[in-house]
Write a structure and sequence with these properties.
266 residues; alpha/beta; four-stranded antiparallel β-sheet
Length: 266
Amino acid sequence: MSMGPADRSGPAIEVRGVVTRFGAHAVHDGLDLTVERGEIVGIVGGSGTGKTVLLRTIIGLQRPAEGSVTLLSERVSWDGTSTAALAGRFGMLFQDGALFSALTVGQNIQVPMRERGGIPAALMDELSRLKVSLVGLPPEACGKFPSELSGGMKKRAGLARALALDPEVVFLDEPTAGLDPIGASDFDELILDLRRALGLTVVMVTHDLDSLARICDRIAVLVDKRIVVGTMEELTRSDHPWIRSYFHGPRARAAFERPAAAGAQG
């Protein structure tokens, strides 16, 4: 379902000097971030540090006061002119799944396909069944409404919609929030499997230390209106007070006992 030749050289994402303000309040003051193709990068930070705002900026929904973003070698414009060039090349899973309640799962998955246009109805039906299978949902899930799904199934349905147009990059906003530990672990394994199978680049906002330890190659910490990027091992050696508190608190101890960045094993 490719729209044609695409530049697959260089990093997947380049954020340079991004400044974000809401009124007189600066949330970001000169953010720099590079995400390589095929990486899984986690974004963490305290309340109000603009984690979701950063995702929205990267995909063109939030205009920064200053700075630039390049996504898949396309300069993000924030006025809609970059949308056509990037159409279908990235997908987004919002925190609550953001499924349309009046549509079935299959119809939800087909929304990006209908917006794209030119895809026969029979092919859209086939593709929606394929995406449902890809995220580990049973075939009958296509005909169910969001209200009939568990929290974990809604997350997977939302991910299936994010994958509808075979994107190269997927953005996840708190993908394991609200899931029980088993469901969260299963979702982590799903992301690793999809990265291996599809060659995805994944950027996710998360507070889940287990997810950070299990699947992230690197972690970007939003702190003091700037960004600090490193592996789990590197960040645990940081002397910044917030980073030390976050990565050395009681909830972090169990996560550190697991191999860091297990996704990097292939």
